[in-house]
Sequence to fold (261 residues):
Amino acid sequence: MPKFQGSIFDVDGVLVDSPHEKAWRESLRELMESSWRGIRDRTTWSPDAFTSHVYQQYVSGKPRMSGARAALDYFHVPDAENGAAEYARLKQEMVVRLIQAGDFTAYPDALRFVIATKDAGMLIADASSSKNAGLFLRQIRLDTFAQENGISSPTLRPGLTLLDYFDADVSGRDFAHGKPHPEIFLTAAHELGVEPSHAMVIEDASAGIQAAKAGGMAAIGIARADDADLLAASGADLVVTTLDDVDTTALSAGRLATRKA
Fold:
């Protein structure tokens, strides 16, 4: 593997513990207990059936309409094609309310890793299918985080948000193809000026790992939902449960490895 020149980050589940999973689950519950009550018995949905595993395998990482359709198909909801629009709209309204209420946190290990990759001389990009990614990234003060955690870096400056820190922002755009197609990651690499073979992607969803590999990039899977096996099966080159376990010294040499105990 050539020396890495670019690092591309998904947002939901990688950089932030977002309310997306909660919004997908609760908005479907709301529909099933109100306007969709008449079809509920014809589905496989139940309040406990929309697990984190279902979210990670079928919904996470996909554009909003694709995620809505995938969830409805999974639960065998009749006329899923037409119902997906209503479901996606309700989910979006709910997730915006949750974000505005501050119902999310940034993962400290991810922020440390973002800083480490830039300090290693890489260009960095955020690349999420979510149109809400900017709402998160603008609210995360990287300078404050670094100060509170004793991190000193020449790449940091006062007032810096996480969104400011990225060299390219390709989140929330409308692409012809969603993950697992590599279009979003290829676009990110292009805007960084990095060849795909010199880029690595950090993802928490199987669709994102598949997209990275389809684009000829290295992929780190971050298993925050007890789904390490799923990420490995999707083709991740390295799977960790915290980005603190990634050996940043090895990254400088173009290798993906975990830190030695």
